[in-house]
Every structure is written in structure tokens, then in C-alpha cells.
Amino acid sequence: MPIAPIVGKLRKRFWLDLTTSLALGTTAGYAFWYGVHLKKVQRQEEYYLKLEQQKQQA
Fold first, then answer.
1. Closest Cα partner for 16 from 24, 4, 27?
2. pLDDT tens string 37-49
3. Is 5 part of any domain?
């Protein structure tokens, strides 16, 4: 009793996996950039601005 060959499944699954991974990776990248990175940079800039203002007052 031979098993019927699976034709075209790998190619279809490959494109689904590729597009899904690219979409999820891009979404995760944007979430990190806008949710974490920019807030951290803003806090850092505020700190340096505060230091600069203290230096000017002294």
C-alpha cells in the first residue's frame, strides 16, 4: 500500500511561513521602536537637558 506523494505542499507552506514571519517581524520591530526605544531616548534627552540647564544656572 504505497503512500500518495504530496505535491506542492512545501512550496505553499514556504510562502505562508515567509510572509507570516516577515509580517510578525516587522510588527515586532515597530512595536519595539515606538514602544520602548523612543521612550528611552526621550528620557535620556530630558536628563541631558536637565543637566545642561543646571550647568547654565551654576
1. 24
2. 999 999 999 999 9
3. no
